[in-house]
Amino acid sequence: MTVQQSPEIGKSIVAAGLRTNYHDQGQGFPVLMIHGSGPGVSAYANWRLVMPVLARSRRVIAPDMVGFGFTERPEGMKYTMDAWVKQAVGLMDELELDQVDLVGNSFGGALSLALAIRHPARVRRLVLMGAAGVNFPITPALDAIWGYTPSFENMRKVMDMFAYDRGLVTDELAQLRYEASKRPGFQESYAAMFPAPRQRWVASLASRDEDIRALPHETLIIHGREDQVLPLSNSIHLSQLILRSQLHVFGRCGHWTQIEHAARFARQVGNFLAEADAV
Question: Of 42, 106, 112, 207, which is the active-site residue?
Fold first, then answer.
């Protein structure tokens, strides 16, 4: 399969000066879905199972954030929360979206928190899945994931850390993600984002507790009970900070709620967002 034929390639738009690859499906109130930070990740790889389901009732927009997927990687790019928030808001501006529902996975959860804190009026409802965005001692799994170097064996080890059900981690899937991780420029940007020591990058993604506590948004927090990458305690802490929040924990689930429990995840998120549609 050539890059041109890849389903990971969606539409293209310049957002905050960055040529951004994004997917845009369905009609209705827009939901912006932000992917995680695993090696070889893209918006499509992260959300492919749930985008078509949510797009039955709303407009689903899923960009590749700079440093990931098929968005351009400018030479000398500084991968910071400021840059990612600017890109996300720039995408909303270019698509003329005054307000969106925001769904963030892992790294994308941290970005979603930061965006909602900085631009609260641009967010209607918030969904955080296996989210970073608070300080915690880095897990061995996250340290290994951020320290990934391209090989099939390393990708297989990393993917085993993501899923509770090892049956989902086939050699074919690991090979596809490995091939994605070694495309030109991919590993260079990935290595530039999270060099060792990596505890500092947990802190760089974190928002202040007092800012999270001030969020006015209705928030759905989702986590896999057996998540090795981001601890369940993150989501418990977020649920204690955010006044208008609800927490759902999936048993027999690792860091891939949207893949391991795709139908349940899409149904729960869809119902939560539909509450606001009815107002």
Answer: 106
